[in-house]
Amino acid sequence: MTDRLKTKQLVRDFYHALDTALPDQMRDVMRRYCAPDLLWRGFHPFNEIIGAAEVATRFWVPLRHGLSRLQRRMDVFMAGRNSLTDEPQDWVCSMGHLMGLFDRAWLGIPPTGRMAFLRYCAFHRIQDGRIIETAMYFDIPHLMMQAGLNPFPPQTGAHLVQPGPMTHDGLMFDDRPDDEGKATLAAIEAMISDLGQWNSGLSLEDELARTWQDDMIWWGPAGIGATYTIERYARQHSGPFRAGFADRSKTKHICRMAEGSFGGFFGWPNFVATPTGGFMGMPATGKPGEFRVIDIYRRDGDRLAENWIFIDLLHFWKQQGLDVLKRSEQLNVLGNR
What we know:
The protein is an alpha+beta fold. Helix content is 31%, strand content 33%. 41% of the residues are buried.
């Protein structure tokens, strides 16, 4: 068994143990598979948590209490070396939905008694047979909208439960040829080079066509939504986003990896930018804000075809002075009086 297969099997075993454990067993599962001083990064309001048992206490047990009969529905599973570090770092990534019955409130979001989907993506760093670092990003506003809440103004893209890859080949439980992963990483890095400058001298659509297939799909987070084709992506997200920000910092990632036709990255934060007005229908604040992001890509040929993106919009808007979760909870209290 290759080292990459061993890291994949470790995470698959971890997921099986975690997903089948009772809530009072989850701390033991975390201790069994993760380092005692595990560094875990999650979206607001969880942020950074240190310690395997603490992650179970603060995140997993309350989530399992809110969403009963929880099951993991993966669409992408891959592993690889971090291309950004000189020393070898082995990472495993999974993406999909956590689905359950929304039977009890979670984070102040009222239950529906119906099935609900929490979009998620997780990067796990493996060392000496343990998970020592995790970035697990999840789309809480997407869950809020399923519960009938409106955390943001109307979005420019489509709101829907997002499917996995069109090719249905994202679950790479076996190894894929290294050349395929290198080609995917090259396509991602070319896109990053264009994305990070905003001054290529080309029209936005011509710039995007250098690294994206014309029938690309951008599976964006709740509050922005999903878009299809370069023309609609430019109109419904990329153009408004660039127009709504100034002083964008350089891109900074913690991990960037690829396997087969899939790859991705995450940062903490990826970049900082100052809203000048219009983004998500909100006014300018003049306050720099952090963007914590995971991007997962599917390559087709020498260009990118699909992109699933997770943005911590709750954290970003809290930095701008709007605590979306707190406001939603206050409105629920007022509505129940």
